[in-house]
Structure formats: structure tokens, C-alpha cells
Amino acid sequence: MENGNLIKKGVVVSVVLLFVSVSVIPSSGTNVVERKSTMPTLYDRNTLYVGGSGPNNYTKIQDAIDNASDGDTVFVYNGTYFEHLRIITDIDLFGEDIEKTVIDGGEEGTVVKIGAYVNLSGFKIRNSVEGITVLSLPPPNNIYKFNVSGNIIENCIIGISLGGSQNHIVYKNIIKDNELGINFFCADNCEVKNNNFINNEKHAYFEYVLFFQFLPRIKWNGNFWDDWDIRIPRPIKGLKVIMFIFRPGTGYKNPICPWINFDWRPAREPYDIGV
Known about the structure:
This protein has 275 residues and is mainly beta. The chain is built from two helices and 22 strands. It is globular and about 55 Å long.
């Protein structure tokens, strides 16, 4: 009996020791590696101001953009800024008032070129060849997306031009008085929703390249079109093309056949858009 009790006690002690060792090893092991995020934390972020007074204030928007770091915000006070912006830093670029914070292209070039993860909101962008476009950058810097929302884009040859890019959102903007409101070329997985297309010679157009992409996944949803007041989907006419590349930066595209996308739920009335 005594030997049996000793055996039972030994088993109990072994189980306890095993439990303790399992509990201790994960907390004291030296092979655990903590992966830290490379994105700025809330406390790393900074706001740079344009058109105001005091510290961190700039006269030109581009100067503030050039001095911003990933995750920063550039806030622009009301005024008219005759600039052509190039954004290659992951920032939020906000205007004080959609009607009174104006970036004017002076009838030439592109007003805003984007090549980063950018939120752009609160501006009137006007008077240029292109209002907003995508920067062509070499890999891996060409993998980015941007959100354009709460802006007015007007009096341009092309309001918004997205070529060879993906994952962009164009949301609740007023796109008006342009020769072409928005243009997609070889773009993929983009969304155009709840915008007002007003008085453009042509509201929207797209081309997709055979062999480079299977089908253009452009989602048109709930936009107001001033030439469409019936309760059926609005067609967006495009074109299927084939590209011949002779050398980097030089090529030729040949049309194959027309193609159509649809805004399946077009809005009956324009949106009240502001920021």
C-alpha cells in the first residue's frame, strides 16, 4: 500500500511539473520575434499647413508636400494656388473649402499627379490639360492607390485620368465643364460612385488592353449623369484595344471592338457634395 501511495504521489508531482514547464516556456523563450508595423503611429503623424500663419506653415502646397513624411496631413487654407502638384508620399491632402480652396493649372499641364497612397479632398481643381492623373513610377513604387473625394474638377481637357493603375476610389466629386470627365486606360479594380457628372462634352470613357487584362473591373455605382434621367442602368461606352510595344515607353494601340460598362443604379438628382 505504501509503495502504491508513493507511485501515486510521483505521478501527481510529474503532472504538476509538466504543467508548470509548459506555462513558463512561451514567456521565457528567446526565439519569439515581435513584428513591428512600418506605418506611422498616431503619435508620429504631423500636420503641415499652407496659406495660414505660424509654425509648420507654407506658402506653396508643393513645398508642404515635399516636407511631409508618410502618414502626415497637409491642410490647405482657402485661396487660389497656381501650382502643378506631384505627390509621391503617403499623405492626406485636405482643402479648407471645396469652393474656396482652388488649385489652378493655368491652362496647361496636370494639376495633381499622384504616385502614392493619398487621400485628396476639399479642393476646386481647374484649368488644365488634366485635373488629376496617375504618376508612372517604376516597380515597386507603382503599387499604390488613392481616394479622390469631395472635390470639384472643372474646365480641363480631361478631369481625371487613370492609366495602368488599380484600386482607386473616385467618390462624391463634382466633375463638370470638361471635355472628358473621367478616363480609364488599362485600369483595374477601380470604383466610381456617387459623383455628379455635369456639362462635360463626354462624361466618361475607358479602354482596356487585350492580353494585359481579362476584363476591366471598373465599378460605376450611383453616379448622377445630367444626360440620363430614366430608371434604367446608364451605359458607359469604351473600347477594347491591343497594344504593340516596340521598346519601353513606345508603343501603338489598335482598336478591336467597342465595349460597354454600366452604372447600374444611376442617381436621379445631383448630390449635395461638400466636406
